[in-house]
Amino acid sequence: MELSQRVGEVFTAPPRIERIAEFLAFVERTGAPQDWPALTTTKHPTGGAPKILALFSIPSRLRGGLESRTPCSICCDRHPKFFEGYLTFLPEEGTLRMMGNRCGRRYFDEGTFQAQEREFNALKVELRARLLLAGCLPTVGLLLQECDIIGDQLRSLIVLKAAVVEALGGQRINALLKSREGDNLMHNLPTERADDRGNRVWERRIVASAPGVGAFAHAVGFVQQLHRNRFLLEGFLAPVLAGGAIDMLTRPQAIAAAEALRAFNVDLTRARVVLSDLQNLFSSKSCLAISAWGQHSETNQKFWIERETTGIKIGHGLKPLHSVRPDHIVELSAEVAAALA
Fold it and tell me: Is 56 helix (H, G, I), strand (E, B) or coil?
Protein backbone atom coordinates (compact mmCIF):
# COMPACT_ATOMS: atom_id res chain seq x y z
CA MET A 1 0.00 0.00 0.00
CA GLU A 2 1.39 3.39 -1.02
CA LEU A 3 0.91 6.20 1.49
CA SER A 4 -0.10 9.74 0.55
CA GLN A 5 2.26 12.67 1.17
CA ARG A 6 1.56 16.11 2.57
CA VAL A 7 3.20 19.20 4.09
CA GLY A 8 2.08 19.69 7.66
CA GLU A 9 2.32 22.61 10.04
CA VAL A 10 5.25 25.02 9.70
CA PHE A 11 7.02 26.10 12.90
CA THR A 12 9.30 29.10 13.38
CA ALA A 13 11.06 27.29 16.24
CA PRO A 14 11.06 23.76 17.67
CA PRO A 15 7.61 23.06 19.12
CA ARG A 16 7.13 23.29 22.87
CA ILE A 17 6.99 20.23 25.05
CA GLU A 18 3.18 20.36 25.08
CA ARG A 19 3.00 19.77 21.29
CA ILE A 20 5.52 16.95 21.52
CA ALA A 21 3.42 15.38 24.28
CA GLU A 22 0.37 15.76 22.02
CA PHE A 23 2.17 13.80 19.27
CA LEU A 24 3.24 11.04 21.66
CA ALA A 25 -0.32 10.74 23.01
CA PHE A 26 -1.61 10.50 19.42
CA VAL A 27 0.84 7.66 18.68
CA GLU A 28 -0.15 5.83 21.86
CA ARG A 29 -3.84 6.16 21.01
CA THR A 30 -3.80 5.42 17.27
CA GLY A 31 -0.52 3.68 16.46
CA ALA A 32 -0.40 5.79 13.28
CA PRO A 33 2.02 8.73 13.76
CA GLN A 34 1.91 9.49 10.03
CA ASP A 35 -1.72 10.63 10.47
CA TRP A 36 -0.88 13.37 12.98
CA PRO A 37 -1.97 16.59 11.17
CA ALA A 38 1.08 18.68 12.07
CA LEU A 39 3.49 16.15 10.59
CA THR A 40 5.09 16.54 7.15
CA THR A 41 5.24 13.20 5.35
CA THR A 42 7.25 14.14 2.24
CA LYS A 43 10.75 12.80 1.78
CA HIS A 44 13.44 14.39 3.90
CA PRO A 45 15.54 16.89 1.92
CA THR A 46 19.26 16.47 1.63
CA GLY A 47 21.38 18.50 4.03
CA GLY A 48 22.25 18.49 7.69
CA ALA A 49 20.85 16.22 10.35
CA PRO A 50 17.56 17.41 11.90
CA LYS A 51 17.00 18.13 15.56
CA ILE A 52 15.61 15.10 17.40
CA LEU A 53 12.56 15.97 19.50
CA ALA A 54 11.25 12.61 20.73
CA LEU A 55 11.69 8.86 20.52
CA PHE A 56 8.40 7.08 19.92
CA SER A 57 7.22 3.50 19.58
CA ILE A 58 4.07 1.95 18.12
CA PRO A 59 2.23 0.33 21.08
CA SER A 60 2.56 -3.46 21.09
CA ARG A 61 -1.23 -3.84 21.20
CA LEU A 62 -1.46 -2.05 17.83
CA ARG A 63 1.35 -3.92 16.09
CA GLY A 64 0.39 -6.43 13.46
CA GLY A 65 1.76 -7.12 10.01
CA LEU A 66 3.65 -4.86 7.66
CA GLU A 67 0.75 -2.42 7.31
CA SER A 68 0.96 -1.48 11.01
CA ARG A 69 4.49 -0.14 10.56
CA THR A 70 5.34 3.52 10.01
CA PRO A 71 6.97 5.11 6.91
CA CYS A 72 10.41 6.73 7.18
CA SER A 73 10.96 10.19 5.68
CA ILE A 74 14.52 9.22 4.79
CA CYS A 75 14.47 5.86 3.10
CA CYS A 76 10.86 4.73 2.78
CA ASP A 77 8.53 7.71 2.76
CA ARG A 78 5.64 6.05 0.89
CA HIS A 79 5.60 2.57 2.47
CA PRO A 80 5.52 1.08 5.99
CA LYS A 81 9.01 0.63 7.49
CA PHE A 82 9.48 0.71 11.30
CA PHE A 83 7.89 0.38 14.76
CA GLU A 84 10.29 2.68 16.62
CA GLY A 85 11.53 6.05 15.42
CA TYR A 86 12.33 9.70 16.04
CA LEU A 87 10.16 12.78 15.71
CA THR A 88 12.48 15.41 14.21
CA PHE A 89 12.49 19.14 13.45
CA LEU A 90 14.15 20.59 10.35
CA PRO A 91 15.05 24.24 11.15
CA GLU A 92 15.54 25.23 7.48
CA GLU A 93 11.92 24.37 6.63
CA GLY A 94 10.29 24.59 10.05
CA THR A 95 8.73 21.16 9.47
CA LEU A 96 8.33 18.02 11.58
CA ARG A 97 9.19 14.63 10.14
CA MET A 98 9.75 11.16 11.48
CA MET A 99 12.43 8.62 10.72
CA GLY A 100 13.39 5.14 11.84
CA ASN A 101 15.58 5.26 14.92
CA ARG A 102 18.38 3.49 13.00
CA CYS A 103 18.05 5.24 9.64
CA GLY A 104 19.63 8.61 10.40
CA ARG A 105 23.11 7.20 10.91
CA ARG A 106 23.13 5.82 7.36
CA TYR A 107 21.61 8.87 5.69
CA PHE A 108 23.29 11.83 7.38
CA ASP A 109 26.90 12.52 8.17
CA GLU A 110 27.67 10.15 11.02
CA GLY A 111 29.28 12.80 13.21
CA THR A 112 26.47 15.37 12.93
CA PHE A 113 23.69 12.83 13.52
CA GLN A 114 25.50 11.32 16.50
CA ALA A 115 25.82 14.83 17.90
CA GLN A 116 22.03 15.23 17.58
CA GLU A 117 21.48 11.89 19.32
CA ARG A 118 23.82 12.89 22.14
CA GLU A 119 22.00 16.20 22.52
CA PHE A 120 18.63 14.42 22.54
CA ASN A 121 19.79 11.93 25.19
CA ALA A 122 21.17 14.78 27.30
CA LEU A 123 17.88 16.63 26.90
CA LYS A 124 15.95 13.57 28.13
CA VAL A 125 18.14 13.39 31.23
CA GLU A 126 17.65 17.12 31.80
CA LEU A 127 13.87 16.92 31.42
CA ARG A 128 13.64 14.01 33.86
CA ALA A 129 15.77 15.99 36.29
CA ARG A 130 13.61 19.12 36.00
CA LEU A 131 10.38 17.10 36.37
CA LEU A 132 11.76 15.45 39.51
CA LEU A 133 12.80 18.78 40.97
CA ALA A 134 9.48 20.41 40.10
CA GLY A 135 7.55 17.59 41.76
CA CYS A 136 9.62 17.59 44.93
CA LEU A 137 10.38 21.30 45.31
CA PRO A 138 7.30 22.13 47.46
CA THR A 139 8.47 19.65 50.12
CA VAL A 140 12.25 20.06 49.92
CA GLY A 141 12.36 22.65 52.71
CA LEU A 142 10.42 20.35 55.05
CA LEU A 143 12.65 17.39 54.13
CA LEU A 144 15.78 19.40 54.96
CA GLN A 145 14.30 20.27 58.36
CA GLU A 146 13.36 16.64 58.97
CA CYS A 147 16.90 15.60 58.07
CA ASP A 148 18.34 17.95 60.69
CA ILE A 149 15.98 16.63 63.38
CA ILE A 150 16.55 12.96 62.50
CA GLY A 151 20.30 13.53 62.31
CA ASP A 152 20.42 14.91 65.86
CA GLN A 153 18.28 12.04 67.16
CA LEU A 154 20.39 9.44 65.37
CA ARG A 155 23.64 10.81 66.73
CA SER A 156 22.28 10.61 70.29
CA LEU A 157 20.97 7.06 69.87
CA ILE A 158 24.13 5.84 68.11
CA VAL A 159 26.14 6.99 71.14
CA LEU A 160 23.66 5.12 73.38
CA LYS A 161 23.94 1.99 71.24
CA ALA A 162 27.74 2.08 71.41
CA ALA A 163 27.61 2.29 75.23
CA VAL A 164 25.15 -0.63 75.45
CA VAL A 165 27.25 -2.75 73.08
CA GLU A 166 30.35 -2.04 75.14
CA ALA A 167 28.51 -2.96 78.35
CA LEU A 168 27.12 -6.22 76.96
CA GLY A 169 30.31 -7.23 75.19
CA GLY A 170 30.95 -8.12 71.58
CA GLN A 171 30.51 -11.88 72.03
CA ARG A 172 27.01 -11.53 73.49
CA ILE A 173 25.98 -9.09 70.74
CA ASN A 174 27.32 -11.41 68.03
CA ALA A 175 25.49 -14.40 69.48
CA LEU A 176 22.31 -12.34 69.71
CA LEU A 177 22.57 -11.24 66.07
CA LYS A 178 23.31 -14.78 64.86
CA SER A 179 20.11 -15.96 66.52
CA ARG A 180 18.03 -13.26 64.84
CA GLU A 181 15.47 -13.84 62.09
CA GLY A 182 13.89 -10.45 61.50
CA ASP A 183 12.76 -9.26 64.92
CA ASN A 184 12.59 -12.82 66.25
CA LEU A 185 15.30 -14.25 68.51
CA MET A 186 15.76 -17.97 67.99
CA HIS A 187 17.30 -21.03 69.64
CA ASN A 188 17.62 -24.66 68.64
CA LEU A 189 15.28 -26.44 71.04
CA PRO A 190 14.52 -30.14 71.60
CA THR A 191 11.18 -31.55 70.51
CA GLU A 192 9.24 -34.64 71.57
CA ARG A 193 10.03 -36.33 68.25
CA ALA A 194 12.87 -38.74 67.48
CA ASP A 195 14.64 -39.55 64.23
CA ASP A 196 15.10 -43.02 62.69
CA ARG A 197 18.00 -43.73 65.06
CA GLY A 198 16.06 -42.75 68.13
CA ASN A 199 17.81 -39.41 68.61
CA ARG A 200 15.75 -36.46 69.74
CA VAL A 201 14.94 -33.98 66.99
CA TRP A 202 15.90 -30.33 67.55
CA GLU A 203 14.17 -27.40 65.85
CA ARG A 204 14.95 -23.73 65.53
CA ARG A 205 12.18 -21.94 67.40
CA ILE A 206 11.28 -18.43 68.47
CA VAL A 207 12.32 -17.58 72.03
CA ALA A 208 11.30 -13.91 71.99
CA SER A 209 10.40 -11.10 69.59
CA ALA A 210 12.33 -7.85 70.02
CA PRO A 211 11.28 -5.06 67.61
CA GLY A 212 14.30 -3.14 66.33
CA VAL A 213 16.91 -5.68 67.42
CA GLY A 214 18.46 -5.46 63.96
CA ALA A 215 19.66 -1.97 64.89
CA PHE A 216 22.59 -3.63 66.67
CA ALA A 217 23.87 -4.53 63.17
CA HIS A 218 23.26 -1.16 61.48
CA ALA A 219 26.32 0.67 60.17
CA VAL A 220 26.52 4.30 61.25
CA GLY A 221 28.58 5.85 58.44
CA PHE A 222 25.48 6.65 56.39
CA VAL A 223 24.60 9.48 58.83
CA GLN A 224 27.58 11.48 57.59
CA GLN A 225 26.62 10.59 54.02
CA LEU A 226 23.06 11.78 54.66
CA HIS A 227 24.24 15.18 55.85
CA ARG A 228 26.76 15.48 53.03
CA ASN A 229 23.98 14.92 50.47
CA ARG A 230 21.73 17.26 52.43
CA PHE A 231 24.18 20.14 52.12
CA LEU A 232 24.94 19.31 48.47
CA LEU A 233 21.23 19.44 47.68
CA GLU A 234 20.73 22.70 49.54
CA GLY A 235 23.70 24.19 47.72
CA PHE A 236 22.44 23.17 44.27
CA LEU A 237 18.93 24.45 44.99
CA ALA A 238 19.93 27.60 46.91
CA PRO A 239 18.81 30.01 44.12
CA VAL A 240 15.48 28.18 43.76
CA LEU A 241 14.84 27.91 47.50
CA ALA A 242 15.51 31.65 47.72
CA GLY A 243 12.53 32.28 45.47
CA GLY A 244 13.84 31.64 41.98
CA ALA A 245 12.48 29.25 39.36
CA ILE A 246 13.84 25.86 38.36
CA ASP A 247 14.26 27.23 34.83
CA MET A 248 17.10 29.41 36.08
CA LEU A 249 19.24 26.30 36.66
CA THR A 250 21.53 25.33 33.81
CA ARG A 251 21.38 21.78 32.46
CA PRO A 252 24.40 20.59 34.49
CA GLN A 253 23.01 22.28 37.62
CA ALA A 254 19.56 20.70 37.18
CA ILE A 255 21.01 17.23 36.59
CA ALA A 256 23.39 17.53 39.55
CA ALA A 257 20.56 18.78 41.80
CA ALA A 258 18.33 15.88 40.75
CA GLU A 259 21.11 13.36 41.45
CA ALA A 260 21.67 14.92 44.87
CA LEU A 261 17.92 14.81 45.54
CA ARG A 262 17.72 11.11 44.66
CA ALA A 263 20.68 10.27 46.88
CA PHE A 264 19.29 12.43 49.68
CA ASN A 265 15.87 10.73 49.48
CA VAL A 266 17.48 7.27 49.64
CA ASP A 267 19.56 8.25 52.67
CA LEU A 268 16.66 9.98 54.41
CA THR A 269 14.42 6.95 53.91
CA ARG A 270 17.11 4.73 55.40
CA ALA A 271 17.60 7.17 58.27
CA ARG A 272 13.89 6.98 59.13
CA VAL A 273 14.09 3.18 59.27
CA VAL A 274 17.24 3.14 61.40
CA LEU A 275 15.82 5.75 63.78
CA SER A 276 12.63 3.71 64.21
CA ASP A 277 14.69 0.55 64.82
CA LEU A 278 16.84 2.27 67.46
CA GLN A 279 13.78 3.70 69.21
CA ASN A 280 12.18 0.25 69.26
CA LEU A 281 15.40 -1.46 70.32
CA PHE A 282 15.64 0.57 73.53
CA SER A 283 11.95 0.35 74.39
CA SER A 284 10.91 -1.51 77.52
CA LYS A 285 9.26 -4.19 75.36
CA SER A 286 12.38 -4.99 73.36
CA CYS A 287 14.68 -4.90 76.38
CA LEU A 288 12.39 -7.40 78.11
CA ALA A 289 12.42 -9.66 75.03
CA ILE A 290 16.21 -9.46 74.67
CA SER A 291 16.54 -10.35 78.35
CA ALA A 292 14.28 -13.37 77.83
CA TRP A 293 16.68 -14.61 75.16
CA GLY A 294 19.72 -13.68 77.25
CA GLN A 295 18.39 -15.62 80.26
CA HIS A 296 17.35 -18.68 78.22
CA SER A 297 18.93 -22.02 79.11
CA GLU A 298 20.36 -22.39 75.57
CA THR A 299 22.16 -19.02 75.72
CA ASN A 300 25.81 -19.61 76.58
CA GLN A 301 26.83 -16.19 77.94
CA LYS A 302 23.74 -15.13 79.83
CA PHE A 303 22.80 -11.50 80.41
CA TRP A 304 19.87 -9.22 81.06
CA ILE A 305 18.95 -5.68 80.08
CA GLU A 306 16.30 -3.44 81.58
CA ARG A 307 15.00 -0.05 80.48
CA GLU A 308 14.21 2.48 83.18
CA THR A 309 13.25 6.14 83.05
CA THR A 310 16.75 7.48 83.67
CA GLY A 311 18.91 4.73 82.26
CA ILE A 312 19.42 1.21 80.95
CA LYS A 313 20.60 -1.44 83.40
CA ILE A 314 22.73 -4.30 82.11
CA GLY A 315 23.79 -7.41 83.99
CA HIS A 316 25.95 -10.42 83.13
CA GLY A 317 24.81 -13.90 84.08
CA LEU A 318 21.43 -14.90 85.48
CA LYS A 319 19.33 -12.11 86.91
CA PRO A 320 18.81 -12.55 90.67
CA LEU A 321 15.25 -12.55 91.92
CA HIS A 322 16.05 -10.02 94.65
CA SER A 323 18.61 -7.26 95.27
CA VAL A 324 19.40 -6.76 91.61
CA ARG A 325 22.71 -4.96 91.15
CA PRO A 326 23.54 -4.37 87.52
CA ASP A 327 27.05 -4.63 86.19
CA HIS A 328 26.50 -1.47 84.13
CA ILE A 329 24.10 1.46 84.08
CA VAL A 330 23.96 3.48 80.85
CA GLU A 331 22.42 6.80 81.79
CA LEU A 332 20.02 8.52 79.41
CA SER A 333 20.89 12.12 78.66
CA ALA A 334 18.13 14.62 78.00
CA GLU A 335 18.84 14.39 74.27
CA VAL A 336 18.64 10.58 74.29
CA ALA A 337 15.47 10.60 76.37
CA ALA A 338 13.89 13.03 73.92
CA ALA A 339 14.93 10.86 70.95
CA LEU A 340 13.37 7.81 72.61
CA ALA A 341 10.15 9.59 73.51
Answer: strand
